[in-house]
Amino acid sequence: MPVSTPPVADDFLAALRAATRALHAEAERSGFVRDLLAGRVTRASYALWLRNLWLAYDTLEAALAVHGAPGLADPRVMRAAALASDLAALCGPRWREDIPVLAAGRDYAHAIGAARGAQLAAHAYVRYLGDLNGGRVLARVVARALGLGESALRYYAFDADAASLERDYRAALARAGATDDDTRAGAEVAASAFRHNIALSEAVLAASR
Q1: Within 13 Å of residue 193, how many CA atoms lie on the same side as its CB?
Q2: I need a surface site. Which of 86, 92, 108, 122 has the fewest CB within 10 A?
Q3: Which residue segments constitute the domains of the chain, with CATH numbers given?
Q4: CB of 7 closer than 8 Å to CB of 186
Q5: How is 83-150 classified by DSSP, letter by letter?
Q6: Over the Cα atoms of the chain, what is R_g?
Q7: How far is Cα 54 from Cα 200, in angstroms, rounded to an integer?
């Protein structure tokens, strides 16, 4: 009897990386994010960006709690509560009512809420590994551009060491991919998630002018 070859866990992550490499670079050169990285933002535009990201994270974290593979709903990487704290520090307790959700933000959250299996893992890959990789750099950029203190920068702060947490989360993503044979769908959704981020970035920039 032939022996089946177990899936290579890294295949899933490699597929997501390959599908998003060019889009990752495009996202950094697009819309609000381009201005953010250059330090050309206002508190109002930054709050609008965070408000719409919060909806994406809130939707993702609710979906992971119910449908996520083991290890993906790791409380150490969850960002919705941190974003809510930053928004309250920036805009006061009525930030949900005072800051609009843009159509691009709703579209992104809807796409996340509809995902399952490898597709949901792909959304987690885009959001959380991006945070763990770039959080410290962005924290410095935002603090310098807007004069913010730690109380408004919790989005970028993790309770655990970011490098070890990234290793743990990569392993959880790899396990999720190894148990779902729809790697192609996961890669397509990861690319789509970057396109949603680019669309949201452009929408925030347009709304802030």
Answers
A1: 32
A2: 92
A3: 11-207 (1.20.910.10)
A4: no
A5: HHHHHHHHH-TTHHHHSPPPHHHHHHHHHHHT--HHHHHHHHIIIIIHHHHHHHHHHHHHHHHH---G
A6: 17
A7: 12
Helix/strand/coil (H, E, C) string of 149-198?
Answer: CHHHCHHHCCCCCHHHHHHHHHHHHHHHHHCCCCHHHHHHHHHHHHHHHH
Query: How many CB atoms neighbour CB 159 within 10 A?
Result: 9
pLDDT, one tens digit per residue, over 122-149 is 999 999 999 999 888 999 999 999 999 9
Residue 111 near residue 196, CB atoms below 8 Å = yes
Give residues with Cβ within 8 angstroms of 9, minimum separation 6: 171, 174, 175, 177, 178
3 state DSSP class of 26: helix
Is the pTM higher than 0.85? The answer reads: yes
Which token pair is 12? 């899933």
Tell the residue number behind the tokens 């192609």, with chain if given.
184
Judge whether 11 and 174 are in contact, CB under 8 Å: no
Dist CA 192 CA 169 (whole Å): 21
Q: What is the arithmetic mean of pLDDT over 166-194?
A: 94
Q: What is the DSSP string of 27-87?
A: HHTSHHHHHHHTT---HHHHHHHHHHHHHHHHHHHHHHHHHPPTTTT-TTT--HHHHHHHH
Distance CA 131, CA 104 (A): 20
